[in-house]
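Q: Here's a chain of 479 amino acids. Please give me its 3D structure as tokens.
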Amino acid sequence: MATAEGGSNSKKSKMKEYLKGWIPYRYKRYVVFILATIVAIVLPFIRIDGAHFFLLNFDHKQIHLFFTKFDMQELYVMPFLLIFGFLGVFFMTTLGGRVWCGWLCPQTIFRVIYRDLIQTKLLGIRRNIANKQKEPEGQTVKRAIGFFIWVALAILAAVDFMWFFVPPEDFFKYIQHPADHHVMMTTISIVAGFLIYDVVKLKEDFCIYVCPYARVQSVMYDEETIQTIYNTDRGGDIYSEDQERKLVNNLKELKVAEPDAECTYCDSCVRVCPTHIDIKRGTQLECINCLECADACTKVMGALGKPSLITWTSLSAVKEHRRPKFLRFRTIAYGIALTAALTGILVMGSKKENMLLNINRTTQLYKIKDNGSRVNNAYIFLFQNTQRKDHKYYFEVEGHPDIKIARPAKPFKLMSGKKAQKVVVLYTTKVLVKDYKKDTPIPITIKAYATDNKKKIVVERHTTFVYPRYDLIQKHKKQ
């Protein structure tokens, strides 16, 4: 008896010494989950000069990016943003496989909260988080409590999602009158309903069958992509190379086939897998790189004083017994493209104007008045105050002292965020061109500005002043 206890203590001591300083990937994922959740909840409340880090505000027809507001007329930054997003996905997948799925995807975070935290830790519906294959039975009351806890969290998650479209400062006003904002309320209901169905009923089937990322990722992998990999050189071949046929069914058969195989056939890696796969089968589409199987194997092999048979590495690195290559042609190419897209975003963002002005000509090109001594051109100016406070606006014609402003005669006030359409009349009393064959468009520059902040709130627009044929001028003079 003493010998058995001594052997058990020796085994525990050996395992404890081998695993000293080891931090399971599961705990690291929890830290990432917590940080991501905090960022998702707090970020919508952070504003700099009234602008959010990211906001698609359909109500005010604006997009906020990096704490800068862009109106619909300024969405030239969107192509760069979309390119950056797609390239980011390509780069991340080529480098780390489905690392997004296991470490940052809301679906994964929500499932961990519901299954591991609510059902296992809080209510004890599941015995432990090391077995995700067996669904809980009975315990109707506890399961109902867990369901309603998740319903409350799903509504909170839906509201947080809505904050990236309706900012909190508007949301808390709108929520006081829900009947007046049925689109917002309907959206929250749909998102919350989907999250409830997804997490409680659909579960990891969403990752396997619904999520398009699982299909896209397969064409982005190469031999150096970091994945969750079972080392067949050490553990032994459990499945055939095509993954279709199982070579051995238990430890005895494995030892007969490969006496040096280190796998204990404990299947801890299988029981803990949230997507219900056997990692010993090889690289599979369903694997989300959560590395829970690696944690399970590390404990088992650690007790034997050996490293885990399942690691986060690349196929080439396992075959050639080396570290993965992070810098290679594909990752460098994606990195350069990402840098170019980010540069485009920053450059275009730096061109953000502090007021907006669109200039359109009227259908009448010009009007000759005062017996041919004066020529008028009419325009429609659309001003928009994109600032947080009211300003008075006016403009001037640059580089053409002979072209003057007839209307409006003085600056006008425009409220914060508002637009104003002004009929503008420019005129000249000088002879600008003596062309008897055709009208002459003269390029001009309009400089519009806020009278109280002319240095910062200013834009320039190019248009034309059309001067009529000189014979028409002469004709009016004769009249």
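Q: Can you summarize the key feature?
A: The first helix runs from residue 2 to 18.
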